[in-house]
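Is iron/sulfur cluster placement plausible here? Inputs below.
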Amino acid sequence: MHSVPAFAAGTPVALGMPTTPAAGLLDRFGRRATDMRLSLTDKCNLRCSYCMPAEGLDWLKKNQVLTSDEILRIVRLGVEQLGVRELRLTGGEPLVRADLVDIIAGIRAAHPDLPVSLTTNGVGLARKAQALKDAGLTRLNVSMDTLHPGTFAQLTRRPFLDQVLAGIEAASAAGLDPIKINAVLMRGINDSGAAELLGWAVERGYELRFIEQMPLDADHGWTRQDMVTAAEIRELLAVEFDLSKDPRERDGAPAERFEVRRRGSTELLGTVGIIASVTEPFCSDCKRTRITAEGKVMSCLFSREETDLLALMRSAPVSAESDAAIIARWQEAMWAKPKAHGMGHVGLGAADFVQPDRSMSAIGG
Ligand code: SAM
Ligand code: SF4
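Reply from A.M.:
I modeled the complex. Tokens:
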């Protein structure tokens, strides 16, 4: 892994680069990032095979991870100076962070109108759902790939499905709405349960979103041939449901949404989203800026370049001047955002994609 070198003023790549915070997080291709993904930890209590190795990873030490004050500062700079309009907290598993509720409360106090969402695996959520709601969390995504305990244990290498289901129920009871369920399908493991999972979700008023498996597993076991594509997901669902395109504007959202009806029925049951990052990429509409748990900017999930904000933050006391230095470095990192990730053709001849060193859990999905 390496850091992005500062662009020398006047070099071709620096031409047009924002020189004032008001320009926001603009890149060379005219995209402006307004959606911030902030990872709170690299640690996790599951070992999903598409994300983590069975033995886990070498966790960061506490002093390598953003403190709650540093998190609040980055959010403040993003929202007040750089045009960030929504925030998603993720990880690793954000619920393992003991100060999660305080972090959310702090963000809410400073930014009363900012939509703040959380992506979690749901383990331990039952105990914390009400506190998260009370702290001001706006929305919740819970990742759950199957309704079958054995399959769950196979996929996540942990027997915690009951806890996840209890967490989702508790979140619903706490009034967190909407609740979205994220699912990754793995061929021959849980793909046959796709329609069942959708039936379960629409019955309860949850929006299910299938995410195409991306090459971000620590084991580097992903293959283009093996992944379940968006087209296949639609076919798997069509066995039980009619899907029609949701007429609402997509507006840069990663998920393509479909209205869901039982086959042959006109009754609208809900919607389902399909995030086709591999086969139908949406890079040209990307609005995301990512900060890892150790305070590095990643302009793209697949970026092989990282820009350290943490060392900069710790090198000087908080002041307008040190804020300005952080803002400039963040803008510089985003300016270098690649045009596209290039993974759609992996294994099919194109050589422009190299899997990043970091796995999904270490970036923040
Ligand atoms: N631990 C939390 C969770 O699982 O929801 C938050 C972090 S996790 C990295 C965020 C999302 O990334 C989850 O919905 C997970 O299913 C998804 N994810 C992880 N690895 C993936 C991969 N290789 N391809 C696609 N999605 C992946
Ligand atoms: Fe943990 Fe989420 Fe990765 Fe699963 S997907 S191993 S729950 S970080």
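Short version: The first strand starts at residue 2 and ends at 3.
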